[in-house]
Amino acid sequence: MLASEEGDIVSEIEEIATRVAYRTCPLCEATCGLEISLEGDRVTRIRGDRDDVFSAGFICPKGSSLKQLHDDPDRLRAPLIRRDGVLVEATWEDAFAFIASRLPQIIAEHGRDSVAVYLGNPNVHNMSGVIYNRVLLKMLGTRSIFSAATVDQMPKHVSSGLMFGHPDTISVPDIDRTGYLLMLGANPKVSNGSLATAPDWPGRIAAIRERGGTVVVVDPRRSKTAEIADEHIFIRPGSDALWLAAICNVIVADGLVDLADLEGHINGIDAAAAALRPYTPEMVAAACGIPARTTRRIAREFAAAESAVAYGRIGTHTTRFGTIASWLVDTLNVITGNLDSPGGAMFPKAATERPRSRRGFRTGRWTSRVDGYPEVRGELPVAALAAEIETEGPGQIRALITVAGNPALSTPDGARLDRALDDLDLMISVDIYLNESSRHADVVLPAPSPLQRAHYDFAFTALSVRNVANYSPEVIPREEGTPDEWEILLRLAAISSGMPPDSDIGPLDDGVLMTMISAAVGAEQSPISGRDPAEVYAGTAGDHGPERILDFLIRTGPYGDGYGTRQGLSLTELRANPHGIDLGPLQPRLPEIVTTPSGRIELAPDSLIAALPGLDELLGHDEPAMVLVGRRTLRSNNSWMHNIEVLVKGKDRCTLQINPDDAHRLRVADGSRVVVTSSTGSVTVPAAITDAIMPGVVSLPHGWGHGSEGTAMETAARRPGVNSNLLTPSDLVDPLSGNATLTAIPVEVRPV
Ligand SMILES: Nc1nc2c(c(=O)[nH]1)N[C@H]1C(S)=C(S)[C@@H](COP(=O)(O)OP(=O)(O)OC[C@H]3O[C@@H](n4cnc5c(=O)[nH]c(N)nc54)[C@H](O)[C@@H]3O)O[C@H]1N2
Ligand SMILES: Nc1nc2c(c(=O)[nH]1)N[C@H]1C(S)=C(S)[C@@H](COP(=O)(O)OP(=O)(O)OC[C@H]3O[C@@H](n4cnc5c(=O)[nH]c(N)nc54)[C@H](O)[C@@H]3O)O[C@H]1N2
Ligand code: SF4
Ligand SMILES: [Mo]
């Protein structure tokens, strides 16, 4: 009796103490559902949520390490202020007072453009960043805006803007239905996918093959994805645009153009065909390292497939021809009738999607002061940031705010930027670590851990291979007196507009929502068109912050309840569905999705046609002996998860992959240290000899190079690796998008 009574007591205690929370993983674009077991506020286990409507239990090693990230003693929990040259812990009040004593003064003396902002990648995975960075930028009123987008996907925004009318109208590969996937410069087996949100890419690739489809991977490395594909084709780094031109050329020359349902929706097909005419498979063969017969075969297979889709990512985007490559990927999809068609490239319909105007898209409304680069989406190339800090004159950058970014490691010519960061009059970092960039800051404001904030993927539901909506509340409460990230951003916004550091930010937050409501009630297509703004405001769930705005965006979005005008989604509905709500497979969206002034897809935008002959530069030159490409590894996340022991233990991952022929020629032994030198810098790193990489190409992952003085990431410092961006030059940007060149970097390799 006693024993069972005891048992009852024990299980009762367990019942009180343990709980399970469901949470979308915010670490990468795959948006996996996590099942998180807790005892009180201590995480005991994280595994894949088998009931998640999209990920069905899939998880990678990073997802479960959110526990270690949360528990990491190096993760910042209190603000830091630089006093007598050293960063010391301070109260939130003191930190904001410090900023208020410096920032408005710099703006008053040197003008608004003297304050720059750099927004890093995790902002896109964070409701606070997505909504409130815009408020910060607006209230700062600066044009000195930089982000990780210009070391990443900016070419896709530009080509999409020019072709479809809006830079966010991005087509994604419908991998769950396609019969033929042609993938360039992407390694989703490892990266878990990008600009194509899908949990379990490996399983989805296997499914294509199981249903009789074909997967072809074009990459200078036989990547993990290439290993699970039907075919892998080595390509000379940096030449994707040229090869895609030849593929399109074959489609046209062989009479394989078939617009199918796109007939009547396309402008410029003749102009595009004429511009591509010179680029025959024979002409590009040497530069691409791909025999003409292979190019012809792939073009014909692609055209013949029941459904087919071309998909290009980092490797195609991070070159001077990134925008051209991105345009040609979509051109290939269009001319084979595979755009906006199941199994082809389709347009997601996110639950928070806003109607887009028919203004069309343009770049270059202003230019960068020193190098004259055109503005793109209101941003300047981050490759130009160091020059803007170093170069004196009106408009020189004197202060920098970084939010969730590590540009010292993530952007080209890291050594130069690292020096420039030291020259700033003021640097403010909102970050969870004291890393290679935030170590230069005068004030560091720690954001809460990912488990301490609510989550909804505004960005990735718009890039998803299936329409899904999934909201997760915070899993663990924030420590008493600690602001959420949106409050930090809003307070920075307030201070930058001259408000006192301790002002009530509530009215500002109300204003953010009210502006959105006013726009919606005034918009014809909105379900709340003509409604009373005050009534809508009063009916919005929650009393502040990103969740209240999420409720508004969901309810006025394409599946929303329109504030009672129809059956549909709201935040309440999302909360009731912790495993997500499946909104079904992607649907054809033409013509409504196209917002070019003509109302048609523009296949031959002037700026792209004019830039195309630039590709000739790749032809007929002497190849440099060696070129450098990057790579990602499964347990990394750009530069910032190397402080987690479970992710970095084991063999060294920051190695230089080199082909056996090159290793033999250069007398490099496996595991020996080699010096890699580019026009920009030099690093010493262990060699890893492998025939998975093309002769003449070496590969080094980015995001390493830890342990510099003033950082506080002990585990990372023990396995520092080297910064591959010491080798990437800052003066080679894609002129159309401002994107940095991070691949095909000429280098010399020699043994130590
Ligand atoms: N050579 C080379 N360079 C590359 C690439 C490449 O392929 N090759 N890839 C590029 C790409 S695609 C990208 S996206 C960029 C990434 O460039 P960045 O965004 O500059 O770098 P990350 O390493 O992602 O750094 C993110 C920072 O955000 C912090 N952080 C994490 N979560 C939060 C949070 O919730 N709030 C706040 N405030 N901070 C947080 C982390 O501590 C870290 O300091 O790197 C680029 N650099
Ligand atoms: N594990 C892990 N996952 C991540 C990240 C991470 O750091 N680690 N980062 C996240 C981020 S921010 C992003 S943007 C995505 C990126 O996701 P992906 O675009 O899939 O990026 P990578 O895995 O770097 O794969 C790029 C591939 O391009 C190849 N490549 C290099 N140069 C060329 C070229 O000139 N032509 C062609 N055809 N191929 C080339 C490389 O060999 C590599 O295999 O990954 C996300 N997911
Ligand atoms: S694949 Fe991406 S979203 Fe899924 S668990 Fe891993 S890091 Fe998280
Ligand atoms: Mo990225």
What key attributes describe this structure?
single chain, 752 residues, alpha/beta, Phosphorylase Kinase, domain 1, Rossmann fold, Dimethylsulfoxide Reductase, domain 2, 4 domains, 7-stranded mixed sheet, 6-stranded mixed barrel, 27 helices, globular, binds ligand MGD, binds iron/sulfur cluster, binds molybdenum atom
Structural write-up:
The chain has 752 residues and is α/β, with parallel strands linked by helices. The protein has 4 domains: 3-60, Phosphorylase Kinase, domain 1 (2-Layer Sandwich), CATH 3.30.200.210; 80-151 and 362-584, 3-Layer(aba) Sandwich (Rossmann fold), CATH 3.40.50.740; 174-351 and 598-615, 3-Layer(aba) Sandwich (Dimethylsulfoxide Reductase, domain 2), CATH 3.40.228.10; 623-751, Barwin-like endoglucanases (Beta Barrel). 32% of the residues lie in helices and 16% in strands. Helix 5 links the parallel strand 6 (115-119) and strand 7 (145-147). Helix 5 (127-140) crosses helix 22 (545-555), helix 10 runs parallel beside helix 15 (322-335) and helix 12 packs across helix 13. The longest helix is centred in the first third of the chain and has 19 residues, at 92-110.
